[in-house]
Task: structure prediction
Amino acid sequence: MSHAHHLAPQSRRALRISAALTGVYFAVELAAGLVIGSVAVLSDAFHTASAVGGVLIAIGAAYLAGSPATPTRTFGLIRAEIFGAFLNGVFLLAMAVLVMTMGALRLSDPKDLATLPMLLIATGGLVTEVISLALLLQGDRSNLNLQGAIWHVVQTFVGSLIIIVAAVVIETTGFLEIDPILGIAFGVVLLWASIGIIRESVDILLEATPRDLDLVRLKQDVEALPGARDMHHVHAWTLPSGRTVVSAHLLINEASVNEAGETDLLQRITDLVRQEHGAYFSTIQLERRCVGEDPREIDFSQGMSLGEAHAPTDSAPAPHHGEH
Result:
């Protein structure tokens, strides 16, 4: 289902270790860049700082998401993880624009760089980044919050690789433009990754239907059950634990379902929604007549034709719920 699974303890531990490693490396790289006077090393140090910030955002969001439900916050702060993922996506987007801008400026005025210090600093970065990535990739990579943190570390990892490749090329060929060209290329990759994270987190925050859930098919499958006539006010959204919640009203056929049979019908609907459509939790209101149908503007089946909206199997017709 959704890519927003709640972080497991192993993933939280990986985030903490990654934050510590990248934080220590940032301090070392910043000091070395200031001593050496290398713009390239200082630039990568600020990239590393952004990775530290991104991982810390993920840690804070995961901590807040563990807050329990209360009468005033019935889902607790579980969506803090998604908000954290959104912030990380925006952070990555800003870094992508910065990397591409710096690359374009450097491409117009390439600089001769001191290659040996670049190689030494970048190699040290690779060691810490490989360890961080190895830890993070052992976690649930479908978690949107963790994805943002991983991409931040990937950003610094590729940044170190770019420094090494650029240093070797410059040392062997004197082609100074290689550094900004590689930087711009990676900026494009960061841009693509950030847009994907932002788009998915916004969808979840706006309670959009999960992308892998066909709500029209779910409605038709429920209406195909004996005794079911018209499913309306159907809603589905994703919790950041990767669990889909479904709610709906269902008009039943009074001729074929007595009050004692309502429980059996409700159980069959619950099983169908959970087993066939992957819902974690569902709330279905059974109705012998339609009640509480307003506001109609949030009922997607209002805009469907009768053929699209209904698939009745009982002898009685399935009238549109607005006509009951």
